[in-house]
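Exercise: predict the fold of this chain.
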Amino acid sequence: MGSHETETGKTLPTPATSAGRAGLDAILARPGKAVIALDFDGTLAPIVPDPEQARAHPDAVPALAALAPKVAAVAVVTGRPADVAVRHGGFAGVPGLEHLVVLGHYGAERWDAVSGEVSAPAPHPGVAAVREELPGLLDRSGAGPGTWTEDKGRAIAVHTRRAGDPQAAFEALRTPLTDLATRHGLIVEPGRLVLELRPPGMDKGVALLDYVRELGAESVLYAGDDLGDLPAYAAVGTLRSDGTPGLLVCSGSDEVTELRERADLVVAGPEGVVELLAGLAAHLKT
């Protein structure tokens, strides 16, 4: 595949793999049958010490609003509660994003821009039990000061980025948090200096696969940055094996190499993701 030039004279980056090039070609050939799926933190929004302060890159919503009307759908697939991602992303009420969906809590929640409503099942009872026991466990863990929890409602995340030795605190907590999660029927999802305790059975791969098949999409792009995005990468692999082309994009990070090694295309963090989305939107004008 040669480079694709937009009407503004900019070229889209060329994926490093043949499967990735086939995925991009399929998206460009029939955009109305393509799903553009994106993680939130680290992909559309820069990673910050306090997740409550995370906001989408300032150019993300304009790029999405330019691209979304030209494709089958845009889906934000995140471990955050759907309404939090909507609020931090600034996705509500934006012209051009009428058919955006946010698949929150790894797909357990779904927000549709067309209705502005969140649909979700009842919370897993293990989350309430973990919420009660976690403070005592953290006090006994020896992880040190700076470790803190983020209550996501349907999951609880323990962050170590603010600790004196973030990686050592992360490793000190991995086993006791796994034991706690197991006792209450939950699993632990490791990420970039965060361990999330959440119900089993849903991940970004399940959410993405279900959504792509629901729409009958003929191609898919998925962009992520963290270990929690690996199931979505695997889902794109499954779709490819079934004959649906896909493009895997890594929002580049030195903290996570697994995605970088498996991606078809690596871009420079959220800024690079936004540039790619804007480039796709510009190309599809021609």
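Check your answer against the key: The first helix runs from residue 18 to 29.
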